Q: What sequence folds into this?
């Protein structure tokens, strides 16, 4: 089952692509969800804003599925999060 | 010299403050209805003027999905809506061969700068560290041409002309040249503009050319221009090809005249606009006395209206007193890069209906503006040929000439 962070990622992907969130699972690939290059940079922008992180270009290029996004963000949050930042402070849609 | 390929207008599309679609816009034009109102699109409390001609009846969701809207600044939406209507209206059937030979030429003064204006507030005002990644593809001035070509699968020449308030007429002139030369066999041409964002309105305020009340072209008490928005597109095809496929022919795009004042960034000359009109007449093989209507640039600014009047007098001499002239900007506002396209649609519909749209809000003529401006009420007239004037900041002039639909 997706945890809170994964749920947030799925919501953002659904919002960027204007698709129901039920269509997205951790196993979904971005290609299957119909993400093209513009959708992908929009998604990265929204993820960076929501989690207050910076996703480096080289990390962004390798992303293929939702699971990779979630684990990548988890890693970046622990690397980059400013003191006091937590999932609860993540603005909701 | 070989006779020129004659070019027909076979479809019209328009969206502006007067309505969405040629039928709605024409109803308003013939009634002399002015669409200038207090602005609704944004808070004007920190802007020195409050009235504009917004396309208030236009609903983006009625024309585009949320995913499409992510990629479309309002100016590109207007272009697409107008292009769809013009294509549908023309009845042209797209085959791979036709798609390869169809050009798209769009005009816009500022392209998607409203997207940019809003997006840059994030980094300038809100201390954010990034700008939305769709800012560049939405803002680029050629987005309208690209969106039309992508949606319709048109793979011929496609590009954008940006010459401020003459953009659309320059676009028509380029499309005309492409079709006459045989570089394309059909063209969607016109322009669009969406200037209502805070920074841009502050910039217009600083120029001190926007009227606090309304647009009264050629009147003694005129106080300036009123900003408008929208888009217009014409479907253009060689006359012989249009006839061969049994298309309805609205009019002939008979000629274009372009000139530069080479004088001043904002002050017009008499000679620049006069030369553009003379060249348009000559390009269209029209004599001055054949012109039955002029859709004036007629911005309502102190500078334009007397200069345009004198330019018309210089070109037409004594004939000028007998030519009905109107500024439809008095109703749909100044569409800037879309102005020529909206006014081309107005001119063509007027020729077809035999009814000339008025200059609305007309009070008392400025003594320096001493021609027949069709005050306030539309006038029945049989028009064999007409001019539509656009004169841009930067002294770039473009005039197009239409001949009534050949029988």
A:
């Amino acid at each position: 089952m997706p945890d809170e962070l994964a749920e947030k990622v799925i919501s953002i992907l659904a919002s960027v692509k204007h698709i129901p969130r039920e269509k997205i699972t951790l196993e979904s690939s971005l290609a299957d969800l119909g993400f093209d290059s513009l959708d992908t940079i929009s998604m990265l922008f929204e993820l960076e804003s929501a989690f207050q992180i910076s996703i480096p270009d080289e990390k962004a290029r390798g992303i293929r599925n939702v699971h990779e996004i979630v684990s990548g963000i988890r890693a970046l949050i622990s690397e980059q999060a400013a003191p006091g930042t937590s999932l609860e402070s993540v603005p909701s849609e | 010299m070989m006779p020129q390929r004659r070019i027909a207008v076979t479809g019209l599309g328009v969206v502006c403050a007067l309505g969405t679609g040629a039928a709605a816009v024409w109803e308003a034009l013939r009634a002399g209805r002015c669409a200038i109102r207090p602005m609704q699109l944004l808070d004007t409390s920190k802007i020195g003027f409050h009235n504009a001609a917004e396309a208030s009846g236009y609903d983006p969701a009625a024309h585009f999905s949320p995913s499409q809207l992510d990629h479309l600044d309002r100016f590109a939406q207007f272009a697409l809506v107008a292009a769809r209507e013009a294509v549908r209206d023309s009845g042209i059937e797209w085959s791979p061969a036709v798609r390869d030979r169809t050009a798209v030429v769009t005009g816009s003064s500022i392209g998607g700068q409203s997207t940019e204006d809003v997006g840059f507030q994030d980094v300038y005002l809100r201390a954010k560290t990034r700008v939305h990644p769709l800012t560049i593809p939405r803002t680029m001035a050629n987005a309208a041409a690209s969106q039309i070509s992508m949606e319709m699968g048109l793979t011929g020449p496609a590009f954008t002309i940006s010459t401020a308030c003459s953009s659309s007429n320059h676009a028509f002139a380029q499309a005309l040249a492409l079709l006459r030369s045989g570089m394309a066999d059909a063209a969607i041409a016109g322009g669009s503009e969406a200037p209502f964002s805070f920074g841009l309105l502050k910039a217009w305020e600083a120029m001190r050319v926007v009227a606090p009340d309304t647009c009264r072209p050629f009147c003694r008490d005129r106080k300036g221009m009123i900003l408008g928005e929208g888009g217009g597109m014409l479907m253009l095809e060689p006359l012989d090809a249009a006839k061969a496929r049994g298309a309805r022919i609205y009019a002939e795009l008979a000629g274009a005249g372009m000139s530069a004042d080479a004088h001043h960034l904002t002050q017009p000359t008499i000679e620049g606009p006069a030369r553009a009109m003379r060249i348009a007449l000559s390009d269209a093989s029209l004599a001055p006395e054949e012109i039955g209507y002029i859709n004036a640039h007629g911005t309502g600014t102190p500078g334009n209206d007397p200069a345009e009047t004198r330019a018309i007098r210089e070109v037409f001499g004594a004939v000028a007193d007998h030519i009905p002239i109107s500024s439809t900007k008095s109703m749909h506002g100044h569409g800037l890069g879309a102005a020529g396209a909206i006014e081309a649609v107005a001119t063509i519909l007027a020729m077809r209906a035999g009814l000339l749209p008025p200059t609305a809000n007309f009070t008392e003529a400025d003594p320096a503006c001493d021609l027949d401006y069709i005050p306030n009420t539309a006038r029945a007239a049989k028009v064999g040929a007409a001019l539509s004037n656009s004169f841009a900041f930067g002294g770039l002039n473009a005039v197009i000439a239409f001949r009534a639909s050949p029988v």
